[in-house]
Amino acid sequence: MFSIFSGRSGRIAAFSAIVLLSGCVSPAERIANKEDHLAAAGFAFRPADTAQRQAMLNKLPPHRFVRRVHGDQVFYVYADPTICDCLYVGDQKAYGAYQQYRQQQAIADEQQEAAQDYQDASWNWGGWGMMGPGWTGWNPAWGNWDPGMGYYANGW
Asked: What does the alpha-carbon distance between residue 154 and residue 33 come to, in Å, rounded to a whole number?
């Protein structure tokens, strides 16, 4: 292994680098991940394997849903000209399943962020000293505040 990763501090640096790099996701990986979820939700994969299909694919906005009505049915089309050169086509049920997954993922992400906010219970605010007049601090909504700037308007 590399000499910079020897010893305890080197192992910590190597571990930190791995953790930081694992959070990096390229746009291509993000799109591919989205397409995996589209397929799992019931969207059908349609390759643009003819000149006519390719021309039609190029007319659609990339990586966006487009709503299409065909007869009395509503379909959702997701065009990917960069990764798979294809369309994903789904009905309302598939689109609803995909949106439900996205909502569940957003809730899970929000819960993860909240857990990260409160993970260090040993944090000691005392080392930072007082946070204003008294430990409780001061807020204009608590009273003793003149909207006309009273004391401050008279030039301190």
From this structure: 62
